[in-house]
């Protein structure tokens, strides 16, 4: 049982490692010569490093994405990272046509293939520290259009027709002329000669199946320097957070004075209102005299007063019905 578990775990690990190994291998999205593309990367760096201030301003304001990234990256490495004088790349670039791949004997470089681009990294050993120069290349569609137009007549039938014409012009048979051409190319078949001719056409186009899209220039820092920068960034970040928290705590601590502030304001308003004169309503007449006797409850007194009022009003010529004459209140007159 233990052996089966061990074999199962071993098989799973083997599959995982095999998949991980396969995932790192990516086919190039276009054809390129390794030495040639590295030399071009170095040449681009030389081109944008040796420009005047006027051209720098022009590239930054009116250049394309690649030109802007190249000028800005080199300027940052010089002014911000203080890398010092750059290593001279002109010698390997100049002698590439003579020495070929040997021109890169002393150059540190790396090529990474992705699904839609190729990243070329070249190390420049500058005066104060190393500098990474990364150029991202993407496929150039114009190259294939130009190549198709230039090689449109390079097929076997078309070439044989041309051979017949030239053979008759020189008084030779077609086979004799074909043999002469093959000897000049150093091949044995017409197909091989046509392939060589296509390569010559590619070289004469002046463009490549790839074009630069972006350049990144960055100083290379040691692990110790990176750890120091990370620590400093951490201290600055945490310090900023604590300062903000202390400021917020200070603001919150001031809230306890708000009730007192608004309380004083309210007291002033109450004091102001208390100084204004207050109108006292007139007292409601009471049927209860000072002596405490309620005259309205004395039926005999009410009847006598009512009869007196009726007689006085009749004598004055005012006629009232006994039913409509109502005595509402009786008050003692103080004389």
Walk me through what this model shows.
With 335 residues, the protein is an alpha+beta fold. It folds into 3 domains: 23-139 and 209-235, no CATH class; 146-205, no CATH class; 286-327. It contains 13 helices and 4 strands. The chain has helices at residues 2-23, 34-49, 53-62, 65-79, 90-94, 96-99, 141-150, 156-169, 174-185, 190-205, 223-253, 258-275, 299-315, and strands at 109-113, 118-125, 130-139, 210-219. It has a 4-stranded antiparallel beta sheet with strand order 1-2-3-4. A hairpin with a 4-residue loop joins strand 1 (109-113) and strand 2. Helix 3 crosses helix 4 (65-79). The protein is elongated. It starts with a helix and ends in a 20-residue tail after the last helix.
Integer-rounded radius of gyration:
54 Å
Find the structural class using helix and strand composition.
Answer: alpha+beta
Question: Strand sequence of the main sheet, in spatial order?
Answer: 1-2-3-4
The DSSP helix count reads: 13
């Amino acid at each position: 049982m233990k052996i089966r578990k061990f074999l199962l775990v071993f098989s799973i690990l083997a599959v995982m490692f095999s998949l991980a190994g396969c995932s790192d291998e990516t086919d190039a999205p276009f054809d390129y010569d390794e030495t040639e593309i590295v030399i071009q990367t170095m040449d681009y760096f030389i081109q944008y490093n040796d420009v005047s201030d006027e051209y720098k301003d022009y590239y930054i304001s009116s250049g394309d994405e690649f030109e802007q990234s190249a000028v800005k990256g080199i300027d940052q490495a010089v002014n911000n990272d203080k890398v010092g004088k750059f290593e001279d790349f002109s010698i390997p670039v100049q002698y590439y046509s003579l020495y070929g791949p040997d021109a890169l004997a002393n150059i540190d470089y790396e090529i990474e293939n992705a699904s839609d681009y190729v990243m070329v990294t070249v190390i420049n050993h500058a005066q104060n520290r190393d500098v990474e120069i990364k150029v991202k290349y993407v496929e150039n569609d114009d190259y294939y259009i130009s190549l198709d137009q230039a090689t449109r007549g390079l097929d076997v039938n078309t070439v044989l027709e041309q051979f017949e014409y030239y053979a008759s012009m020189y008084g030779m048979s077609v086979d004799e002329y074909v043999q002469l051409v093959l000897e000049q190319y150093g091949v044995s078949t017409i197909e091989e000669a046509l392939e060589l001719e296509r390569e010559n056409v590619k070289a004469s186009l002046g463009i490549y199946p790839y074009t630069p899209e972006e350049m990144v220039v960055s100083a290379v820092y040691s692990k110790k320097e990176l750890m120091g920068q990370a620590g400093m960034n951490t201290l600055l970040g945490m310090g900023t957070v604590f300062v903000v928290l202390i400021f917020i705590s200070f603001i919150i601590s001031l809230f306890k004075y708000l009730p007192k502030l608004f309380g004083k304001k309210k007291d002033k308003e109450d004091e102001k209102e208390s100084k204004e004169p207050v109108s006292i309503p007139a007292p409601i007449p009471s049927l209860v005299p000072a002596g405490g006797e309620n005259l309205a409850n004395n039926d005999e007194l009410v009847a006598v007063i009512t009869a007196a009022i009726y007689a006085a009003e009749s004598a004055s010529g005012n006629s009232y019905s006994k039913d409509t004459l109502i005595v509402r209140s009786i008050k003692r007159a103080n004389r």
